[in-house]
Specification:
2 domains, rod-shaped, four-stranded antiparallel sheet, three-stranded antiparallel sheet, PH-domain like, alpha+beta, 3 helices, 7 strands
């Protein structure tokens, strides 16, 4: 069995690298259109069309670059879970020893701590069904092992 699982995913259709490439391509296209227009290789109307398209693409890519959230991730180790809670930017760290139980749904896992707090780990960004299943089985095995250790400690006392 694996000792840890790490999954990193982006919530956007285009990655940061694609947006940067789109910005550079649109700006360079506008520059080429300007040079071709100044040498009378293309008409002014064609140059204006290119400027307009380049402007829209530049604004689109700049908007996506500045509104992009940080990359979400799930990290499962032998004794703790790290993930970002739904609709928040803070990272949650849960130790298996502090968990009472967890419930699995198709697109989320709900953890209940001994202090009766509920935390939700969403799995919507994980497209691979096999990875979802792997995460759920990893959690089932580790939380079961901790319960078994507690039971043996109670039985031996």
């Amino acid at each position: 069995m694996k000792q840890s699982i790490y999954i990193q995913f982006e919530q956007y259709l285009f990655s940061r690298k694609v947006m940067l490439a789109l910005l550079i391509a649109s700006l360079s296209t506008a520059l080429v259109a300007y040079v071709l227009n100044s040498t009378s290789a293309i008409t002014e109307l064609t140059a204006y069309y290119v400027y307009t398209l380049s402007s829209f693409l530049s604004v689109f890519s700049i908007y996506h670059l500045y509104t992009k959230k940080s990359t979400d991730y799930i990290y499962l180790t032998e004794d703790e879970i790290w993930f970002k809670e739904k609709d928040q930017n803070e990272t949650i760290c849960l130790k298996y020893a502090h968990l009472e139980y967890f419930e699995t749904r198709f697109s989320e896992i709900i953890f209940c701590t001994k202090e009766e707090e509920k935390m939700v780990m969403t799995l919507n960004s994980i497209r691979d069904e096999k990875k979802r299943w792997e995460i759920k089985e990893f959690l089932r095995n580790h939380i079961r092992q901790i319960r078994d250790q507690k039971m043996t400690l109670l039985a031996s006392a």
